[in-house]
Amino acid sequence: MPVQTRAPGGALLLALLPATVLAQGTGQEPVTTLPELEVVGRAPGSLTAPSVAEQRKQVEQTPAAARFIEAEEFRNRRAFTLRDVLSDTPGLFVQDRYGQELRLSVRGSGIARGFHLRGLEVLQDGIPVNLADGSGDFYQIDPLALRSAAVFPGGNALAYGASTLGGAINFTTPTAHTAEAPNILRAEAGVWGTWRLSGQVSRILGEADALANFSHFSTDGWRQHSRGSYDQFNANVGYRISDTVETRFYAGIYGTRQLLPGALTLGQALNTPRIANAQALSGNQARNVQVERFANRTTVRLDAGQLDLDSWVIHKSLYHPIFQVLDQDGLTWGIAPRWTQAFTVGGLRNDLVVGGRYFAGTNDALQYVNNRGSRGALTANGVQRAQNYEAFLENRLWVLPGLALVAGAKALRNERDYENRLTNQQYSRTYDGLNPKLGLLWQPRPEVQAFANITRSQDVPDFSDQLQTVNNQPLWVPLQAQRAWTVELGTRGRFERGSWDATLFRSNLRGQLLQYTVNPSIPASTFNAGTTVNQGIELAGRYDLWQGLLAAGDRLTLGQVWTFNDFRFRADRQYGDNRIAGLPPHVLRTTLAYAQPDRFFVRPALDWVPQGAWADYANTLRANSYIKLGLEAGVTVGPGVSVFLDARNLTNKRYVSDLGTITDASKVSTAVFYPGEGRSLYLGTRIAF
Fold first, then answer.
1. I want to staple 312 with a disulfide (CB 3.0 to 4.6 A). Which of 62, 295, 365, 672 is the partner?
2. Would you give the DSSP letter of residue 110?
3. Burial of 495: CB neighbours in 10 Å, binned 0-12, 13-18, 19+
């Protein structure tokens, strides 16, 4: 059958868009018919879930440093953690610790956070995954259940309602309309008892569609006491009520059982990296989590724009023996309307986004003496409550055909309450804010952009920050919100043989939320710093060195990613102008890929950290520098059938992957280093039919 396309822009737009985009459509009336062709993995999408091409288009037309990652980029590799998804994205520091636990920081968000996530909003299908206090985990995001990811640093995430220093990352799961194939099976195995099975099935049934994805991962772990297993289930069901109304329900169930190896001293990390921390062993430290997530998006296309109404509920149960046994059970819920419209003002094109969010949560938080991983005597019993009221808008006015003025703002009110049931004491704090945004976008050609923005961000401390451990008891600390003004200048574009993405940014912060480790087994304490500066460069480029080298359509592509971080105190009474501990100043990744499309590829990769991160704010102890080599390869052995190899750290380099932060290495324990994994090899196969 012929493939039909729908496009809003007439002959000029048709001339600019590639055939694969035309084959997907944009949801308007049909205007042309193309010759018969077969399109693989390029489904047209629906009202609630746009096509992948439309997702990319929306991100690349954002007048700021936004980045888009399609699942094809990490399909034939060991995509277990978010590092495997985001490693080729500039501006992100993402490093593994153990299991799926990692450090994810954007422009210094959570720079000193030695555990989990803060200062960055994680979205799945545009709906928040974070809990109501802003904290978050990574276990709910299964790389094998993704169709794409989009990174919006800082105030660039305003159109999604986020206004933290780090911004937001939106992970989009496939639907039956956007899935690569109706059925996908995957199996892989590797060193240290690692194996994973995954399956996905999707169907379109008239006006309804459904998709389900399940993955099981199990490993003995590279380090002692790091065995883990993960079960991740994602599903969605959509129904098109009419040509202008569609609703989609999402469901997710995630189970994590992870032993914790703990952090080591620098000497241990470099000389005996596979051992576990002694306290992790004696306390049989672990993190066991069960999460259920349900969400809905209903889209109504009106004559006056489009209305998206999101709602969600997340239940999380945590059993976490560390310095004590943390036993928590919490519920988060929310609703978020969002209206978008494109219209003209005085003959000028205008794009408007207006939205609001209310989300709240409650968490019963108990603590017990840790008897080798089992509950002992009760030491703490409290309830944590969070409520958030947010309203935002962003407007883009094209004052010239290639020049847009961008303005927006977000008003917020965040309420945090804690009740200590053992002492009958209650504590609360309310944070109000108004975060404006102003920017310019110059687009001389559809494939080239230059932009400048100034945005204000506000990060509210979560309960891990506000409830600090003193004498093994939770103590409420009334921290201030972190506030920052960020300026960014950048350009991005693509041409026949490659692409580029370059951004310079500078954030002036007040009250930056920084942390320091008191004891390797106790969650870090948080404080508000004075004046600090986060600035840096985010650079990525790709260039086809050769095309048609050995066969028609093949190419040899050089890729380079460079993230430069210069984060410092400013005239601090204790630390002067020292660098803020936590992140290395330079992170580089170079790849050289040879590919024959639909046949095979091979891609060596070099990861280089020229200087390790400071571990202490006194700047007396830092991690080592390192160069790490890897190799990825894959071959298509039949229609829809591929086999891949992923070899990492080929030279078995000993290095520090991540670390916690401390005040002064000469005065406190320095067991804050997480050793990077040694030489490893993984093989897998993937079948799509």
1. 295
2. T
3. exposed
Report whether 629 contacts 642 (CB < 8 A). no
Give yes or no: residues 43 and 67 share one domain.
no
What residues contact 667, with CB distance under 8 A and at least 6 apart? none
CATH of the domain at 188: 2.40.170.20
For β-strands 467-470 and 448-459, DSSP reports them as unpaired
Helices then strands (H, E): number in the chain? 7, 37
Whether 480 and 572 share a structural domain:
yes
Which of 38, 58, 78 is the last residue before a domain boundary? 58
The torsion region of residue 37 among left (phi > 0), alpha (psi -120 to 50) and beta comes to beta
Q: How many CB atoms lie within 10 A of CB 549?
A: 12
Q: What is the pLDDT of residues 578-606, one digit of tens each?
A: 999 999 999 999 999 999 988 999 999 99
Distance CA 552, CA 103 (A): 41
The DSSP H or E segment spanning 122 is: strand 121-124
| Total tally of structural domains belonging to the chain | 2
Q: Please count the other Cβ atoms lying within 10 Å of the Cβ belonging to residue 653.
A: 15
- 46 lies in the same domain as 36: yes
Same domain, 307 and 371: yes
> What is the reported pLDDT for 272?
97
Per the structure block, which two tokens stand in for 26?
A: 């944009």
Mean per-residue pLDDT over the chain, rounded: 89
Q: 236 and 247 in contact (C-beta within 8 Å)? A: no
Q: From CA 420, how far away is CA 424, in angstroms rounded?
A: 5
Asked if 63 and 141 touch (Cβ cutoff 8 Å), the reply is no
Supply the range of the domain harboring residue 17: 4-58
Q: If you search the block for the tokens 């509950």, which residue do you land on?
A: 375
Q: Identify whether residues 453 and 514 lie together within a single domain.
A: yes
- Answer yes or no: are the C-beta atoms of 621 and 614 closer than 8 Å: yes
In a shared domain, residues 29 and 154: no
Whether 482 and 556 map to the same domain: the answer is yes
Rounded Cα–Cα distance for residues 193 and 185 (Å): 20
Torsion of CA 125, 129, 132, 137, to 10 degrees: -160
For strand 680-688 and strand 183-190, is the pairing parallel, antiparallel, or unpaired? antiparallel
337 and 454 housed in the same domain: yes
Strand-pair partners of 117: 136
pTM of the model: 0.89
Q: How far apart are CA 91 and CA 74, in angstroms?
A: 18
pLDDT tens figures, 414-446 = 999 999 999 999 999 999 999 999 999 999 998
**Strand 513-516 with 148-152, pairing:** unpaired
